[in-house]
Design brief:
455 residues; alpha/beta; Rossmann fold; Beta-Lactamase; Hypothetical protein af1432; 3 domains; 10 strands; binds fe (ii) ion
């Protein structure tokens, strides 16, 4: 199959220039018989007038003509127009054949011209013209592409490179083509990051990679590089076609986004710490409780292999899980004797109060829900809603265990510290009933095997 687009004959414009009326009319008739559009001129000057008016694909011209002969016509046409020329030579005394070809003539025929022969030659010229036109289009596409495109042979030699490729190297095509990759990029880059991709590509595998390229400006440039295997004979891989797409802008935007996210995360952590301090300022007896709960909850979550992002959320939730105590009268929080039933029911309000404070903040984690659920129990015996089993978030179940272990093991206004053994004994005895089995198991393992301690 031809790899070029054949024009229909009626779109092909031929111009016959000959001072012999009978010859030009005979040739015009022959051209029109094939289907081509054909103009005629009796000399070079007339031919140029037609060319100025409309494009001509091929001029078939005589040499000896009045006013402007075929040689002068050829010189002007080759300078100004994209038109092929077939020359009909009669008495070539002043010019040798090679001189005629050197003028840029595509073919020549000796007079008297055989129509059959002329049409065969003309079709060949038109075919080459179509192929060349197709090539020019491809070259235009390849050279205007922003991607860096190169064709590299199996011995790592550049055979084709586009304009973008040369621009990044600050070299001309002549300086790159024929060179080995390592001569252009340097031995180190070639050995460390290019060779393996080319070698894999030469086995017939398409390879994709991200590559940074040192640049004259301070920041390196980043490229998405694709290596496509290419076979010049259709049988075995002979080349790699390398297409590199500049992703520096995207990389910079990603980096900027990451910095912004870090900044926001730091700001959020600072806000959460401030919230934690706010509640602890009113409740000095539980100062540090929230941080210690957060530390234990994070350790449990890590050993349960929860996702890093989820663990970050648990850390935040732990740090402010008692935020709702801000709504409880300070004298109840620090009451040195056992709470009455009414007072205890007031304390219980802190989960709902905490939820109400946080529910409209758009955290990337379910922090308001963790705060709401941290006193819920597996069997529904918790508060405020008596939620059962897996309706409670795993994040909240972890906080519940960390909260109770810290509370029992620490000093409280109304009782001395009961110690970690009593705390572990309690969660152990209520594992499965009040507390999630896996969370309790992990918590026990942390204290008994990993020597976890509150700081
Ligand atoms: Fe609480």
């Amino acid at each position: 199959m031809d790899s070029y687009k054949k024009l229909p004959p009626e779109q092909i414009h031929i111009l016959v220039a000959d001072d012999d009326k009978s010859i030009r009319e005979t040739l015009q008739e022959a051209m029109q018989h094939v289907g081509y559009r054909c103009s005629i001129a009796s000399n070079g000057r007339e031919a140029l007038t037609i060319l100025e008016r409309e494009p001509v694909d091929v001029i078939i011209t005589d040499i000896m003509m009045p006013h402007l002969d075929g040689i002068e016509l050829t010189k002007i046409v080759k300078k100004k127009y994209d038109t092929d020329i077939i020359m009909m030579t009669g008495f070539v005394k002043e010019y040798t054949y090679s001189e005629i070809i050197d003028l840029g003539v595509s073919d020549f025929l000796e007079k008297p011209v055989s129509i059959k022969e002329l049409i065969i030659r003309l079709k060949r010229v038109l075919r080459e013209r179509a192929i060349l036109s197709e090539q020019k289009k491809f070259e235009f596409i390849v050279n205007t592409a922003k991607e860096l495109i190169a064709l590299v042979a199996k011995d790592y030699t550049y055979e084709v490179v586009n304009t973008a490729y040369c621009q990044i190297q600050k070299k001309s095509k002549e300086e790159v083509i024929g060179q080995k990759i390592f001569n252009i990029w340097g031995e180190d880059i070639f050995k460390e990051s290019l060779k393996k991709h080319f070698d894999l590509c030469f086995t017939g595998t398409e390879v994709h990679d991200e590559q940074s390229i040192p640049s004259s400006s301070r920041e390196p440039r980043y490229f998405n590089v694709a290596y496509y295997p290419y076979s010049s004979d259709g049988k075995s891989i002979s080349h790699a076609i390398v297409v590199s797409h500049d992703i520096s802008e995207r990389k910079r935007a990603e980096e900027q986004l990451r910095l912004t996210m870090d900044h926001l995360r730091n700001a959020m952590e600072a806000i959460i710490q401030t919230l934690a301090l706010t509640v602890e300022a009113r409740d000095p007896y539980t100062a540090g409780h929230q941080k210690r709960v957060a530390d234990l909850a994070v350790a449990i979550a890590q050993h349960m292999h929860l996702a890093e992002d989820q663990i970050n959320g648990i850390a935040m939730g732990g740090a402010i899980h008692d935020i709702g105590k801000i709504a409880i009268p300070a004298e109840i929080l620090s009451k040195p004797t056992k709470l009455t039933e009414v007072e205890f029911s007031l304390i219980k309000v802190h989960t709902q109060a905490g939820y109400d404070i946080l529910k409209d903040i758009n955290f990337p984690w379910p922090i308001a829900r963790m705060v709401f659920e941290h006193h819920e129990r597996m069997d529904g015996s918790g508060y405020p809603n008596g939620i059962i089993g897996n309706n409670i978030l795993i994040d909240s179940k972890i906080l519940a265990v960390a909260d109770v272990v810290e509370a029992i093991s620490s000093h409280r206004p109304y009782r001395p510290a009961l110690g970690i053994d009593a705390a572990l004994e309690m969660i152990s005895s209520k594992s499965g009933a009040c507390y999630d089995v896996d969370v309790v198991k992990t918590c026990l393992m942390l204290f008994n095997e990993k020597k976890f301690r509150f700081t």
